[in-house]
Amino acid sequence: MIVKAKTEDISDIVMLWERVSLKEFSNYIGKENIEFFIQNDELLNEITHLHNNIYVFKLNKKIVGFVILIDNLIELLIVSPEDQNGLIGKKLYLFAINKIFSKYDTVIAECFNENKKVNSLLQRLGFIFVKSYQEEMGFITNQYIKTIK
Description:
Blueprint: E1 2-4, H1 10-29, H2 31-39, H3 42-50, E2 54-59, E3 62-70, E4 73-79, H4 88-101, E5 106-112, H5 116-124, E6 128-134, E7 140-147
Parallel strand pairs: 4-5
Antiparallel strand pairs: 1-2, 2-3, 3-4, 5-7, 6-7
């Protein structure tokens, strides 16, 4: 079930983001960058600041994934490593697309250039590649759009 995050979900969201970041995002942006983000409370501050834009996917009352929506941008989508490949990511993307299309004509999604699995999923969901750009920390991000037909 996908629901809007509540204040009491913040610590679970932070733990999930931290765990996935250290396990998977380290390959893309470096472990030292992630550890800095976590240790300086930037991760907690980011989640606290954005919690009204977060929707969580719960299985048996446990948060196994979440998506952050900012206007028409899918800012971030994370699924616990144990629950990946179980269609949770796809369901979160479809939820996000429908939510954004209720207000906007275009959905923007971004992902790390090196994350082939997510790049492929976005294309299967009908997103069109727009551009790649280098983030300020040096990693490459791909941007995609999907428009209402």
